[in-house]
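dumping this here so i dont lose it
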């Protein structure tokens, strides 16, 4: 039923300019059209889907604790949203990890270390740790211990070229080390953003779209594999649980809260569906919960979208 629902979404919304086929064996979408979908705002198919998706999400997820941006994966056009000032830079936690890892790769010929995560004793969020991890599993499980080691000697200046190339605001010059992976000191100001890498949510969503476009470039395949694993069995597993075998790519994060009604942190999930050839991207923020819980909301939202 979920496959039928998303197939109808893609066809009626015009997310493909021609034919969209589904493989019975893999459940992945295959774009058979030689032409790129016209995602202009004046495209009537785009407008139809945007209106339908916005109505469904606003109706079924009315809580002010939920913010979202829904974009067309081909053009970056915002199709539906409920997010105050999405162009304003805020802390986005572990959503930065793939881009930090790419910056590391640029400096080390895209050779990444293996690591043993020992849990809280090695600086991870998971009490018992993740054990032996490589970069792909570190992305999938958002292993803080791995990224503390990866970024131990990194500086903002080393991250800046990669960040800029993906359209992200570069980190402030004084930021270094694990803060560059979204793991910094929560700071001393009210919203805990003083010592964080600040990026606008809209720029972050479009940076993930750029990852898809660069899938054949060095290092990017590892990030996408980690995101696919995240949606299947990692911190973003609630996304695939909602979508079934149709699948998605996902990355989660937890960051200091920036709401007027302060909480210890906010959860973020970015999901691209379907995994084989993404047609839409959804960025969700849920007030006062970790990223893994935000993944459940993101999965439910993707499942609810209907033409």
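and the seq i came up w/
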């Amino acid at each position: 039923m979920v496959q039928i629902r998303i197939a109808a979404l893609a066809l009626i919304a015009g997310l493909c300019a021609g034919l969209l086929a589904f493989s019975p064996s893999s459940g992945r979408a295959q774009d058979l059209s030689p032409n790129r979908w016209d995602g202009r705002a004046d495209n009537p198919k785009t407008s139809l889907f945007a209106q339908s998706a916005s109505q469904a999400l606003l109706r079924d997820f009315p809580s002010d604790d939920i913010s979202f941006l829904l974009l067309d994966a081909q053009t970056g056009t915002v199709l539906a949203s409920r997010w105050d000032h999405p162009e304003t830079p805020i802390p986005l936690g572990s959503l930065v990890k793939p881009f930090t890892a790419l910056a590391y790769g640029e400096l080390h010929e895209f050779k990444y270390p293996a690591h043993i995560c020992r849990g809280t004793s090695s600086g991870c969020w998971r009490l018992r740790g993740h054990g032996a991890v490589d970069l792909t599993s570190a992305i999938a499980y958002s292993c803080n211990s791995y990224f503390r080691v990866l970024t131990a000697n990194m500086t903002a200046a080393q991250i800046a070229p990669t960040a800029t190339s993906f359209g992200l605001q570069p980190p402030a010059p004084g930021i270094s080390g694990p803060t560059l992976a979204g793991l910094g000191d929560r700071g001393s100001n009210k919203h805990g953003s003083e010592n964080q890498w600040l990026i606008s949510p809209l720029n972050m969503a479009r940076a993930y779209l750029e990852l898809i476009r660069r899938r054949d470039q060095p290092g990017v395949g590892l990030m996408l594999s980690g995101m696919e694993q995240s949606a299947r069995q990692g911190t973003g597993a609630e996304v695939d649980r909602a979508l079934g075998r149709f699948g998605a790519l996902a990355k989660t994060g937890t960051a200091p809260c920036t709401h007027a009604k302060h909480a210890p942190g906010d959860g973020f999930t970015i999901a691209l569906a379907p995994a084989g050839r993404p047609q839409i991207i959804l960025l969700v923020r849920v007030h006062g919960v970790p990223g893994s819980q935000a993944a459940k909301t993101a999965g439910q939202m993707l499942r609810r979208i209907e033409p």
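The domain at 2-304 is CATH 3.40.710.10 (Beta-lactamase).
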